[in-house]
Design brief:
By secondary structure, the protein is an alpha/beta fold. It has one domain: Metal-dependent hydrolases (TIM Barrel, Alpha-Beta Barrel), CATH 3.20.20. The chain is 41% helix and 14% strand. The chain contains 10 helices and 8 strands. Strands 1-2-3-4-5-6-7-8 form an 8-stranded parallel β-sheet.
Length: 275
């Protein structure tokens, strides 16, 4: 059993995907459940976590509608405006499939934006609603998320795409290593083994990505590490079968129970879905 802990769908005409410029032209098309279905069948994917790709409540409602019609979608990570009326927004998007929210921190210039007192209060409300937070961050945010985890220990957080390390060859750098190690000291912080092909760029392989994998495995352990495809963004750097095969190669020396956690159990536990 495999749960893909991170994938996206979108319908371009909805009009709120501001990041879709010419640099992502190959994926600037409608991508919907029928597009993923053959890849999921071929890969043995039994469920997915559908993650927001636009900073609007309207997109979250669109994703929740897709979850109503596609049994492969086991959970949805949506979006709310943390500077607005969070209670009213949470009421609007309340749905059995909603499991968390994702502020798009990588696109916000102020690195410590999430630590504003009003945003901390908003995230406490998110935690009280039984939801989690996906942290879409880059290495500049590692210290900020460390502080956030100290402020709100009751909020489960998962670091998307291993915090997007910047590669020098295969080396993600000492700052990234140290920051991820600090984050892993918080028991409520998890990590997604996702997005690495895009961050590495041309020539990615199990060998080139192994230093990142080995560090997050050592820091978080298989019980807090989950595999995700980041499809269809993945298509900018490769394909679904290739990334799944590389992830399986990276984990081939682990015990079966550890592999089962990384490819299904951790995501099921974090997002509260059945396997």
């Amino acid at each position: 059993m495999i749960i893909d802990s991170h994938q996206h769908f979108w319908r371009i005409a909805r009009g709120d995907y501001g990041w879709m410029d010419d640099s992502v032209a190959p994926i600037r098309r409608d991508i919907l459940p029928a597009d993923l279905a053959p890849l999921a069948r071929a890969g043995g994917i039994s469920g997915t976590v559908l993650v927001q790709a636009a900073p609007t409540v309207e997109e979250t409602l669109f994703l929740l509608d897709l979850a109503d019609s596609d049994p492969l979608i086991r959970a949805v990570v949506g979006w709310v405006d943390l500077s607005g009326d969070v209670g009213a927004q949470l009421e609007r998007i309340a749905h059995p499939a909603l499991r968390g929210i994702r502020p798009m921190l990588q696109d916000i210039a102020q690195t410590d934006w999430i630590l504003r007192p009003g945003h901390i209060d908003a995230l406490r409300m998110v935690a009280r609603a039984g939801l989690r937070m996906d942290a879409l961050i880059t290495p500049r945010h590692l210290g900020v998320i460390d502080r956030l985890a100290q402020e709100i220990p009751e909020l489960p957080i998962v670091i998307d795409h291993c915090a997007k390390p910047v590669f020098d060859g295969s080396d993600p750098g000492a700052m990234w290593r140290e920051g991820m190690t600090r984050l892993a000291r918080h028991p409520q912080v998890f990590c997604k083994l996702s997005g690495l092909a895009n961050e590495f760029g041309s020539g990615w392989s199990a060998q080139s990505l192994r230093p990142v994998f080995e560090h997050v495995l050592a820091a978080f352990g298989p019980a807090r590490l989950m595999w995700g495809s980041d499809w269809p963004v993945l298509e900018l750097a490769g394909g679904y079968p290739g990334w799944l095969a590389v992830a399986q190669e990276l984990t081939t020396d682990l015990e079966a129970t550890a592999r089962a956690q990384i490819f299904a159990g951790t995501a099921a536990h974090f997002y509260g879905v059945d396997i």
